[in-house]
Amino acid sequence: EGDKKESRGALIVLEGLDRSGKTSQCNRLASFLEGQGTSAELWRFPDRTTNVGQMISAYLSNTSQLDDHTIHLLFSANRWEKRSLMETKLKAGTTLVVDRYSYSGVAFSSAKGLDIEWCKAPEIGLLAPDVVVYLGISPEKAAERGGYGGERYEKLEFQKKVADYYKVLRDDTWKVVDANQSIEDVEKQLQEIVTDCVAECRKGKPLSTLWS
Ligand code: NYM
Predict the structure, then answer these.
(1) Closest ligand 1 atom to the C-alpha of 22?
(2) What's the pTM value of the predicted model, to 2 decimals?
């Protein structure tokens, strides 16, 4: 009987403050996995390619103004519109390396003063990551790296608040990697974490949903 289930891919999320090095590490990680013969795709939120994503992008670049609750729900909707594709890919055996997810959603909106439980509610039912790697860097160090663009939220005082909310959100699925290290050292640690995680998912670790 063809009852043997295909092994699934892993849902890997990278989180961290702006300028923590997430995007370069996501790129490196996806290439590493491909090099190992693991089917992998690089994803990011916000996904600015959709209609909702374009509204988010206009908001972030200050081209449009939106109420704090409204933009929060748009960020969430942007994840919901990708949920079924995400599940299909994972079940087909593709590992997803995702640059930001629900934790960004809750940390950034809570930092504005919205109630954290209210912020978490629309994320309930999205796929839970198999691992969240938090690239830890102090807000001051991140700011020194420069390259804060002109986007909303890219200000030291605000990033400090975001860092506090990330701490509140930290759970068992999180691994914290010190992002003050060299790019290569961070990369190596990420590779170890992710290799274990991909193996567990292959062995049949079930997919779950937020917040678990
Ligand atoms: N951001 C990102 C949120 O406020 N809520 C979310 O749900 C997500 C995914 O958008 N400063 C914020 C964090 C970033 C900004 O992200 C754009 P990026 O990674 O710079 O494109």
Answers:
(1) 19
(2) 0.96
Q: How far is the CA of 46 from the centre of ligand 1 (A)?
A: 6
Distance, in Å, from the CA atom of 139 to the CA atom of 117, rounded to the nearest integer, reads 24
pLDDT tens-place values along the chain, 212 residues long:
444 456 999 999 999 999 999 999 999 999 999 999 999 999 999 999 999 999 999 999 999 999 999 999 999 999 999 999 999 999 999 999 999 999 999 999 999 999 999 999 999 999 999 999 999 999 999 999 877 878 999 999 999 999 999 999 999 999 999 999 999 999 999 999 999 999 999 999 999 999 97
Cα 203 to ligand 1 centre (Å): 33
Q: Using the Cα atoms of residue 48, residue 51, residue 54 and residue 59 in order, give the sign of their dihedral.
A: negative
CB neighbour list of residue 66: distance below 8 Å, 6 or more residues apart: 55, 59, 74
- Distance CA(156)–CA(142), nearest Å, equals 9
CA–centroid distance, 211 to ligand 1, in Å, is 19
Largest Cα span, the chain:
60
- From the CB of 122, is ligand 1 less than 6 Å away? no
Cα(110)–Cα(153) distance, rounded to whole angstroms?
12
- Does ipTM come in above 0.90? yes
Question: Order of strands across the sheet with 11-16?
Answer: 40-44, 95-99, 11-16, 131-136, 174-178
